[in-house]
Write a structure and sequence with these properties.
It is a single chain. The protein has 160 residues and is an alpha+beta fold. The protein has 2 domains: 87 residues; 60 residues, no CATH class. Helices cover 32% and strands 25% of the residues. It is built from 4 helices and 9 strands. Strands 1-5-4 form a 3-stranded antiparallel beta sheet, covered by helices on one side. It starts with 12 loop residues before the first strand and ends in a 10-residue tail after the last strand. This is ABC transporter ATPase.
Length: 160
């Protein structure tokens, strides 16, 4: 059951998929339609899942699930991963590679392999105040409060 992302409770489970490039305007329209279709029929053991999504900065797909209604099963999570893999193929993007870092450079969102990001920190091209995206958040409240944070306040701080 698809619901507006804003209506999901603070405790909703969150999955964040970052793309290695921005989606085009046409791709965003298609992507919203595909996410709507997938989440409308997404289920766990035959029970409809109350879920919503949003797309941020033309490159992050955020899926939220109200687990108070129905908890995601292994099969439903597998279905989500297979859906994301199909998007990777269709749009020729990486969405599942967790060894990359996205961060803000002004209004631009940069995307770098972790090893290159470490070098940027070392040579002071990014600072402790650089805004990074913490894609490890698990709940909507964490997403709202702790997704876009200064490097010094994130798990990335270990590179300082």
């Amino acid at each position: 059951m698809l619901v507006p992302f804003q209506e999901l409770p603070e405790e909703a489970r969150i999955w964040i998929y970052q793309a290695n490039r921005s989606f085009t305007a046409d791709e965003l329209i298609e992507l919203e339609q595909e996410l709507t279709q997938f989440l409308t029929q997404w289920a766990a053991h035959g029970a409809s899942l109350k879920a919503g999504f949003e797309i941020k900065y033309k490159r992050f797909i955020i899926i939220g699930l109200d687990q108070e209604v129905t908890i995601a099963s292994g099969c439903s999570i597998d279905a989500q991963v297979h859906f994301i893999q199909s998007l990777e193929k269709k749009y020729q993007v990486d969405l599942l590679d967790k060894m990359n870092v996205s961060f803000k450079q002004g209004e631009f969102v940069a995307y770098k392999p972790l090893i290159d990001f470490k070098k940027l920190v070392k040579n002071k091209s990014v600072s402790a105040n650089t805004i990074v995206f913490n894609n490890l958040v698990n709940t909507k409240v964490e997403y709202v409060n702790d997704w876009e944070v200064p490097l010094k306040d994130s798990w990335h701080q270990r590179f300082l």
